[in-house]
Amino acid sequence: MESQELRNVGLKVTTPRLKILSLLEKSTEKHMTAETIYRLLSTGGEVIGLATVYRALAQFEAAGLITRHQFEGGQTVFELERGPHHDHIVCVRCGRVEEFYDKIIEERQRVISEKLGFTLSDHALTLYGECTPNCPKSHSA
Amino acid sequence: MESQELRNVGLKVTTPRLKILSLLEKSTEKHMTAETIYRLLSTGGEVIGLATVYRALAQFEAAGLITRHQFEGGQTVFELERGPHHDHIVCVRCGRVEEFYDKIIEERQRVISEKLGFTLSDHALTLYGECTPNCPKSHSA
DNA sequence: AATCAAATGAGAATGACTCTCATCATAAGT
DNA sequence: ACTTATGATGAGAGTCATTCTCATTTGATT
Questions:
Q1: Cβ-nearest to B129 among A72, A119, A127
Q2: Residues of chain A with CATH 1.10.10.10
Q3: Does the CB of B94 fall within 7 Å of any strand D atom?
Q4: Chain B residues with CB-CB distance to A under 8 A?
Q5: Most buried of B18, B31, B104, B106 (most Cβ within 10 A)?
Q6: Residues of A engaging B, defined by a Cβ cutoff of 8 Å
Q7: Helices and strands, counts by H and E, chain A
Q8: Domain with CATH 3.30.1490.190 in chain A
Q9: SS3 A115
Q10: Distance between terminal CA atoms of chain B?
Q11: Which pLDDT tens digit goes with each residue over A53-107?
Q12: Which CATH class is domain B1-82?
């Protein structure tokens, strides 16, 4: 039950929050914009405000339930925090997103921030490229 | 003379473009938002439109004269392309930006994208943290 | 069931950026 | 240098994502 997840992080259990959380859990698409979530729920017959979606996502992020990614080109997507940390590679043509994790890079980041006197709290690494030579040009998340 | 730089990249030499370019070259602050550039020039008595600043920056970026960085929190900054490539570490409290370059990370990125079948065209790596335990809370670029 | 703080939806407001368009300046040709 | 046409400019309107405001509703606690 998603209710427990909400209680665990100190958030009141409400209908909109449950709807959003369960959509994120069920959806095949791992990375969704606030708009997309709003649209999917609305199309599904739910009555929900866009502001509520943004509010809930911000809270989920603060609680560590989801992660926010700001890719170039202005698209901001949210992703359920399931497994361990990972970074992304985004196709600049079709928008496809793949994930990867590299121990060596993670390690280097720690070393670098330490050397510069920073207390590392977060990082954003995104690679951009073309996924295949004949990649389908458009894509909607 | 900055005029030559503009001609080299096929851009017409105009007053606003020269002003922006020379501000970027003279300023001690390496990373500036479009707003900041606009404000600095306006305060300096120049008559320039904000739209012109955005247009020029986009053209400079396309021409490879400057680089655009989208840091978290929505701030987009521009930086003159001087030396070789580097990444950034940003203080989440005061906004201070330091630069670094790590051969190993760069290398790993190539390997990873190759393994995933992508043709790497760009990447964005930004670390976030606190620069010192007693960091001055605010900062304006 | 009663209470009250917190959450919600709707729409207004904001902020960053882009577009439109009438005017103006630069580079090319004379 | 002078003219011209092409491209650039400034001002303000427009757009898009996100946040705020506020009257109303809901959920947790009693």
A1: A119
A2: 1-82
A3: no
A4: 70, 72, 74, 89, 91-92, 98, 100, 102, 104-105, 108-109, 112-113, 116-133
A5: B31
A6: 70, 72, 89, 91-92, 98, 100, 102, 104-105, 108-109, 112-113, 116-133
A7: 5, 5
A8: 84-141
A9: helix
A10: 26
A11: 999 999 999 999 999 999 987 789 999 999 899 999 999 888 889 999 999 999 9
A12: mainly alpha
Q: Give CA angle at A129 (A126, A131), nearest 5°.
A: 115
Locate A86 and state its tokens: 């990972």
CATH superfamily of B84-141: Ferric-uptake regulator, C-terminal dimerisarion domain (3.30.1490.190)
Lowest mean pLDDT among A9-23, A65-79, A123-137: A123-137
Q: Per the structure block, which two tokens stand in for A88?
A: 């992304």
Shortest distance, CA A136 to any CA of chain B (angstroms): 14
- Summarised one tens digit per residue, pLDDT across range B16-75 is 999 999 999 999 999 999 999 999 999 999 999 999 999 999 999 999 999 999 998 788
The pLDDT tens digits for B37-53 are 999 999 999 999 999 99
B104: tokens are 């190993």
Sign (positive or negative) of CA dihedral A104, B84, B79, B136: positive
Q: How close is the nearest chain A Cα to the Cα of B129, in Å?
A: 4
Tell me whether residues B129 and A112 touch, CB distance under 8 A.
no
